[in-house]
Design brief:
The chain is built from four helices and eight strands, in the order ααβββββααβββ. It is of the alpha+beta class. It binds a DNA duplex (13 and 13 nucleotides) through strand 3, strand 4 and helix 4.
Length: 191
DNA sequence: CAGTGGATGCTCT
DNA sequence: GAGCATCCACTGT
């Protein structure tokens, strides 16, 4: 039986739960897809979240309804993709950090200019390049939109660790990875 | 394998 | 003007 696209209600839950449950789901865009093997959650209540300072021009999508896509430019170069979550009134999102490539692998290789399978999507900036997800997709809705997320068919074993690459609220254990996956962004997660 | 530094552009102070 | 939710190339073990 083919997996179903995740409904809005899936994203209208506390962001840590959504982030954990997204590991093993499938992200699809424009001829390519990958199994989500690493996520992080961000919530307005902690300083690492873009929404922490209140609504701005950049982060307004975070304050909108769950089930939409938040894309922003990191270090002037990389697009990073997030899925907006939480009950209405809470700004939160799940950062997709790594995928195991599934479909359209040759297309991913040409978009990335890289050959190795475990280098195609093993990082938040890499996977957006591999799937062709750019800033123009900021704010799109998941259901009926160009980007899809499909339910996992079994629950993977998940490793919880600290988030990576941030300087604020570094102690929170809000990173979720598929245990033993060789496609995660960093082989040795911080404790 | 670990550590360092440059690229690059937008957002917010 | 500072600071990035990153990646890659390069250095030295």
């Amino acid at each position: 039986m083919a997996p179903a696209q995740l409904p809005r209600a899936f994203f209208e839950r506390p962001v840590e739960e959504v982030a954990k449950d997204l590991v093993g789901a499938v992200l699809v865009h424009d001829g390519t897809s990958g199994l989500i093997v690493e996520t992080e959650s961000y919530h307005q209540s902690e300083a690492a979240c873009h929404a922490h300072v209140g609504p701005t021009a950049r982060n307004r999508v975070l304050f909108g309804p769950a089930g939409h896509v938040y894309v922003y430019l990191s270090y002037g170069i990389h697009s990073l993709v997030n899925l907006v979550t939480g009950p209405d009134g809470e700004a939160a999102a799940v950062l997709i950090r790594a995928l195991e490539p599934l479909e359209g692998i040759e297309l991913m290789r040409s978009r990335r200019g890289v050959d190795r399978l475990d280098e195609l999507c093993s990082g938040p900036g890499k996977l957006t390049e591999a799937l062709g997800i750019g800033l123009e997709f900021n704010g799109v809705e998941l259901s009926d939109g160009p980007i899809g997320v499909f339910a996992r068919d079994s629950e993977p074993e998940i490793v919880v660790s600290k988030r990576v690459g941030i300087t604020k609220a570094v102690e929170l254990p809000w990173r979720f990875s598929a245990s033993g996956s060789r496609f995660v962004s960093r082989p040795r997660p911080p404790a």
